[in-house]
Amino acid sequence: MQQTQSSGLGHGRRLVLFPVPLQGHINPMLQLANILHSKAGFSITVIHTKFNSPNQSKYPHFKFQPIPDGLLENEASTTDALSLLTVLNVNCVAPFRDCLAGLLSNVSEEPIACLITDAIWHFTQAVAHSLELPRIVLRTSSVASFLAFAAFPLLRKNGYLPKQDSQLAAPVPELPPLRVKDIPTIGADIPGELDDLIEGMIKETKASSGLIWNSFTELEQPALATLQQDFGIPVFLIGPFHKYFPASSSSLLTQDQSSISWLDKQAPKSVIYVSFGSIAAMDETEFLEMAWGLANSMQPFLWVVRTGIIRGSEWIEPLPKGFMEAVGERGHIVKWAPQQDVLMHPATGGFWTHNGWNSTLESICEGVPMICSPCFGDQMVNARYVSHVWRVGVQLENGPERGEVEKAIRRLMVEKEGEEMRERIMCMKESVNLCLKQGGSSYQSLESLISYSVIILIILFSHLWTRLRSP
């Protein structure tokens, strides 16, 4: 846990934050808000869409401002996240501007130091500029995956996109160590929506006043150096966010605490924990291959099967009759789990993950090696780094075929290769602990961010005062 005391620099000043309404984006934004409130004393206002609105009861010390998002019933779904984000970047412009202007004009509140928005909200840069308010960007992915997105125009120009099946294993020299299959596309990768979203995100991030990252310098030093050179704005790697406080959750889903009582009965480092996050979906065939791979491995498993994750099914109906009876106490299936607590548990020895950045970072923080099954977007880049750069996991290259699943679990949980991965990731865990302590990289970066947030407010007031005095 991070050891800083509150600097108090933020007292009498307010930050306005605007998270993207997806589980993997809401969590880090609210964690960041907690950090800046508790460590610097900033007051916090969270603007949010009505779709997937955060649970306000968990944050009584924040103020929340809902805005209409204009989503039609068929649009209010994470099934097609790309279309959802494209629509929201249009629908929210006027409501967001009105809300932010109202907050700025409210003289009964503390002056607003700056706006912090998710990088995906690219429209907010123009709004902030028009209201003469500094905007700092939070990016909820790894630095490496952000650079891959930033390289999209070059990758299209050089013929890597759209991806061709015959070229998937080919290296991408422009983005080592990525292969063509690791380029972070979403859906069918037809030029249009994705390119427009990425172009807006990159362009308006470069125009912002700074970048905050839920990562730490020791993990991504080469990518950080490239980012600083290419973007030319202040960058603050202050993560891992969730390690500043005891395990807590801003989950939009109800957590099943039976996960922990079941883990309490298992041997140390014996359990493979399986969870593919809040958006990923699979077909019935993939689900059954996963099930038989887990069963045949003879390893205890805790499996999160989210409601609706299997296309065409409500929950685990496709499991063969008698499957759970055959597995017995060796397996436990829940709809959602308290992931941080699960990864910290002594019985957890491996994590089969979709490699969303939050999950990847949480696994690193607890020294748990991974089996990687990326689904889309930045997960592809994260999985490549886990398996081939940091070498703390194995990647299922061809999907969840039961024989490959069984083999991967044995490699991770039983064989010497897995023990070597565990040793490497335990070293990474120690790096996390050091970066958060006084004098560590994230500790120092957070102090710089707090000072910077105050300084840009002073500069803003200075400019306004100069203009008021001008004839």
Which terms summarize this structure?
Rossmann fold, 17 helices, 43% helix, alpha/beta, 2 domains, 13 strands, six-stranded parallel β-sheet, single chain, 471 residues
Estimate the strand proportion. 5-15%
Low-pLDDT segments, ≥5 res: none
**Inertia-based shape:** globular
Instruction: Quote the distance from N terminus to C terminus.
Output: 53 Å
The neighbouring-strand order within the major sheet is 3-2-1-4-5-6-7
E-strand count: 13
User: What is the correct CATH architecture of the largest domain?
Assistant: 3-Layer(aba) Sandwich
- Secondary-structure-derived class: alpha/beta
The CATH topology annotation of the largest domain reads as Rossmann fold
CATH class of the largest domain: Alpha Beta
- Rg, Cα atoms, Å: 22 Å
According to CATH, the homologous superfamily of the largest domain is Glycogen Phosphorylase B
Amount of helix = 40-55%
Query: What is the chain-wise order of helices and strands?
Result: EHEEHHEHEHHHEHEHEHEHEHEHEHEHHH
Tally of individual helices: 17
What characterizes the major β-sheet?
7 strands, parallel
Fold and architecture overview:
The chain has 471 residues and is α/β, with parallel strands linked by helices. It has 17 helices and 13 strands. α1 links the parallel β1 (14-18) and β2 (43-49). The longest helix has 29 residues, at 441-469.
